[in-house]
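Final report, Chapter 2: Outcomes

The project's central promise was a pipeline that accepts a single protein chain and returns its three-dimensional structure in a standardized token representation, suitable for archiving and comparison. That pipeline is now operational. To close this chapter, we reproduce one record exactly as it appears in the project archive, with the input sequence first and the structure output second.
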Amino acid sequence: MWAVPIAILYAFNNNLFPGSIDISPYSLTLLSGLLAVVSVNVVIAIYVFMAMKEPSGRHNPDPRFLAKVEAKSNQMQENSSATYKKEE
């Protein structure tokens, strides 16, 4: 999918589309850039659609990871409360 915008730019700049030979170089650059930007947005929309279509209940976080995050969060809270008490 990442190749679509590059292919559009290449095709326009090398006159691979019918009728693109009759367009001025300035207009050709603008048109190819605009179509490349539109194709990037279409690719992003497809990725978002595929992500939204994926079931959310299928993924379960790793319990070890959750335990590490909780321990780190508790440690940070203890450190911040100890720092706050020192300042008083």
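Archive annotation: The two ends are 57 Å apart (CA to CA).
This record, like all others produced under the grant, will remain available to the consortium after the project formally closes.
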